[in-house]
Automatic annotation (TrEMBL):
GO cellular component assignments: cytoplasm; ribosome
Transcription regulation in keyword set: no
GO molecular function annotation: protein N-terminal-serine acetyltransferase activity; protein-N-terminal-alanine acetyltransferase activity
InterPro entries hit by this protein: Acyl_CoA_acyltransferase (IPR016181), GNAT_dom (IPR000182), Ribosomal_N-acetyltransferase (IPR051908)
One Pfam family from the record: Acetyltransf_3
Record key words, sorted: Ribonucleoprotein, Ribosomal protein, Transferase
Name of the protein: Acetyltransferase, ribosomal protein N-acetylase
Amino acid sequence: MPDSTFLPGERVDLRPIEEDDLEYLRDAINDPAIWRPIGGSRPINRTQEQEFFDEVVCGDDGVHLLITADGEPVGTIAVRDIDWEASRGEIGYWIDPEEHGQGYGTEATELLVAYAFDQLGLHRVQARVFAFNEASQRLLESVGFVREGTSREFQFVDGEYRDTHWYGLLEDEWRDREP
């Protein structure tokens, strides 16, 4: 596949998700180390992954990208649920468990947040993360997100209700941060 990098970084690139990526995505999303932290609760087959691709990835409600390192997929990231009137969107991501600790998620998040503010003209980017997902909380805070609140017992995962922390980042906070 020719290089289709949309947002280049130093160690990762973000590129559009293509149909050729669906097998990788289906296999990854069925890994408990991925579906648990993002709140998945059901297995996903190829047809369901295709439907997600057709309806969500190819839809107009967000920007969904594959995170690659050295040309190989290592995760996904998106800004979705964009409310153009309120000028806000929600960021979500996952990184292949074999690639955790490499800084790929942090760099991808920085790239997409910059795009959301600079190109999409958003004023606010928000994120949500389960209370048990401390690595994702650290990632968001390292990029400048502020924890704004907690929805108690927000989602049922792994046989119990889990708290969800809500994070927000305003455009001026992003621009005023220390590089």
